[in-house]
Amino acid sequence: MKDSFDILIVGIGGQGTVLASNVLGEACIAEGKPVRSAETHGMAQRGGSVESHVRIGAEHGSLIAPGTADLLIAFDLLEALRYRHYLPEGGRVVTNSRFVPPTSVYMQNLQIPDESEILTGLAGLSVTCVDAAALAAEAGSTLAQNIVMLGAASVDIPLSPEALLEAVRKCVPKKTIEINEKAFRIGRSTDRGC
């Protein structure tokens, strides 16, 4: 029997995956739950993939094995497709509905995939799509997209919304607390579908 709830947060450099994992860690501490986490940055400075593994309740090991994640939070639609193998069939993914075309698309003159092609690649999973940019703008800043995504995923995470909001307050810069609180609440109340 599995002793943890495993969340993989993925995106590209600069989207705030590490901040989101820090928020989850702080919320676990507030609730007295053990937590393990690890980040892989790769070529993040050049728009490359970033992944953050968060294991709530885990006593050993910080990396999630492929096919065993309970939840995938993707800040970029293409990254949801790239990391889908971490979920079992029927697994849960909360993804941004937008994506940044990789540099290789332009460098190699490749065709940019459309949203429907990417969503076809996510068939067999339980998918929620979130227009994080629009919702973050509604909250007051497009820089709060990561907190919107965390809010949208929070209904699937075994942590209280109060602990998550308190963690947001601790982790974001003081001058952005109000915007990020609003972003979390807007994300949490978003529709659950694609």
Automatic annotation (TrEMBL):
It catalyses: indole-3-pyruvate + 2 oxidized [2Fe-2S]-[ferredoxin] + CoA = (indol-3-yl)acetyl-CoA + 2 reduced [2Fe-2S]-[ferredoxin] + CO2 + H(+). Keywords: Oxidoreductase, Pyruvate. The keyword RNA-binding does not apply. The keyword Cytoplasm does not apply. Gene3D superfamilies: Pyruvate-ferredoxin oxidoreductase, PFOR, domain III. Its EC number is 1.2.7.8. One of its GO terms (molecular function) is indolepyruvate ferredoxin oxidoreductase activity. Pfam families: POR. InterPro entries: Indolepyruvate_Fd_OxRdtase_bsu, IorB_Oxidoreductase, Pyrv/ketoisovalerate_OxRed_cat, Pyrv_flavodox_OxRed_cen. Residues 13-188 form the Pyruvate/ketoisovalerate oxidoreductase catalytic domain. Heterodimer of the IorA and IorB subunits. NCBIfam families: IOR_beta. This is Indolepyruvate ferredoxin oxidoreductase subunit beta. It comes from Methanoculleus taiwanensis.
